[in-house]
Amino acid sequence: MSNLPSEPEFEQAYKELASSLENSTVFEKNPEYRIALEVASIPERVIQFRVVWEDDTGKLQVNRGYRVQYNSALGPYKGGLRLHPSVNLSILKFLGFEQTFKNALTGLNMGGAKGGSDFNPKGRTNNEIRRFCVSFMRELSKHIGADTDVPAGDIGVGGREIGYLFGTYRKERNKFEGVLTGKGLDWGGSLIRPEATGYGLVYYVTHMLEYAGAGDWKGKRVAISGSGNVAQYAALKCIELGATVVSLSDSQGALVAQGDRTITPEDIAAIGELKLNRGSLSAYDTQGSLKYIEGARPWLHVGAVDVALPSATQNEVSKEEAEGLIASGAKFIAEGSNMGCTQAAIDIFEAHRKETKAEAIWYAPGKAANCGGVAVSGLEMAQNSARLSWTTEEVDEKLKGIMKNAFFNGLNTAKQYTKVAEGELPSLVDGSNIAGFVKVAKAMHDQGDWWSTA
């Protein structure tokens, strides 16, 4: 890759997958998979375009728009749209690469993609956001469709933005079809979709707890980062199941419970309203029961915890924070965000797992632990194709089944392809990486995307 510009986020995601494959028996048993990795690491298509729109003062604004259509061997491209000033090609390639193997772990027929723009919705009016979305979709609509590429929301893209995007697509293409997920319930959306990533994360960790002999959620202290949909619904589900939530955060700082105080459903509802209006956690009046720590993430400030759920953005747990979580007694860490831990942090967790065996902290990667969101997006696609709607109970049961399968797929694949010492917990990061890769590689081979000359 030396002839290409540096893409640190993508390179990190690639190296994580490649190291799992190298440290297993995959290449030993199937040496031809080396060429499969080489082919799968390059997106099938990268679309870049300009987005020209007008702000409320009449001034012309221009942003960069992207769609990285990574892999369609398992189904239509599927992955979110992110609106954030940090968006660039490296970040979207990393997200699309991860999405490909995450979608494979759901068991549904979905390929991988990611897209978005460096547009910043914070501080923009509703009309400005609408004008941006209209301009963005006028170009993107040329490249997507219900059987081609089905985007969803991500950071900066919620129900309002999905509505503007879908309405523009419908007018531009003269089609009412399931081209976006996360839609309103009255026009093709699915129940449980807003909750799905957070709920699914908790369902996944439930199996980690049970397998490791740690019981259920009752009495567990849980540290969570983020304060968007994933963090909010993960926190609510943890509380519902009997756990205590002690932190939330945003890009400006962290809220940490003080003394015997915990984060309550009432806190989460108020914070949800605050974030809907693009506010900062620093504006939340906690009346002294929650401490706001400016410029900090929660991990080194939460005291003793049992479970950590990074649910904000990429690389939000550093090596030092990983060491701090282990010192605090944390036994389980699962990513609600994509690539929430740095590689150095993952190395710490994996080394501790090998050295300390059953008493170690057990790490679950986002491609497995947070696949519930895209799983319910896939269920929304299925409902759209059949022109029907399932009940909350039906969708929730399907979500639970998908998360159970994702956990045991990664667990059993780790046992099959990696060395697991007696008393040691299998590597969920290696098992999930291998399981997702092998499924995609086999489909690509069957369809002639790569072949072996040996």
UniProtKB/TrEMBL annotation:
Belongs to the Glu/Leu/Phe/Val dehydrogenases family. Residues 190-448 form the Glutamate/phenylalanine/leucine/valine/L-tryptophan dehydrogenase C-terminal domain. GO terms for cellular component: cytosol. GO terms for biological process: glutamate biosynthetic process. Homohexamer. Pfam families: ELFV_dehydrog (PF00208), ELFV_dehydrog_N (PF02812). It comes from Podospora appendiculata. GO terms for molecular function: glutamate dehydrogenase (NADP+) activity; nucleotide binding. NCBIfam families: PRK09414.1. It catalyses: L-glutamate + NADP(+) + H2O = 2-oxoglutarate + NH4(+) + NADPH + H(+). This is Glutamate dehydrogenase.
